Amino acid sequence: YPIFMAYANQSADLIYGLARAMIVDYDAYKDGAPGAAGLDVKRQNLTWVLPYHEGAVRALKEAGAWKPEHDAHNQKLLKRQETLASAWGAFLKTNPPEDKAAFSKGWLAARKAALAAAGMDPVFE
Fold first, then answer.
1. What is the reported pTM?
2. What is the pLDDT of residue 96?
3. What is the average pLDDT score of the chain?
4. What crossing angle do the helices spanning 54-62 and 68-92 adopt, rounded to 10°?
């Protein structure tokens, strides 16, 4: 923490510009807030559980922080996101129950099945 999030449909140039500014200008803001130390590019977990936006990847590469193993991990996470989005769409087409508990149970089962079929760990069930 802190974590910056962006939708995948955001412009790569916009995300690149923001990420680059955060990396290049770190010394200018690092003492401005208690959590700012977590924004140092050297402290980033580049194999975390969410994929990095292509614009952020470009800035991280430029900073020398992004390595081939990070790209491989990120590609797996992007595939995971695609698998989950597809599973979600398919689940909604099954006319799932309106009851919150039944809906949740059904979605978790569909999620697990889709991830397993793709050879991915569901992480939680």
1. 0.85
2. 97
3. 95
4. 170
Sign of CA dihedral 81, 87, 88, 90: positive
Torsion sign over Cα 47, 48, 52, 56: negative
- The DSSP secondary-structure symbol of 94 reads T
Interatomic CA distance for residues 119 and 125, integer angstroms: 15
- In this predicted structure, the answer to whether residue 32 has a pLDDT above a threshold of 70 is yes
Q: How confident is the model at residue 1 (pLDDT cuts 50, 70, 90)?
A: low
- Contacts of residue 51, defined as CB under 8 A and 6 or more positions apart, other chains included, come to 74, 77, 78, 80, 81
Contact 43, 37 (CB under 8 A): yes
Q: Residues 46, 52: contact at Cβ < 8 Å?
A: yes
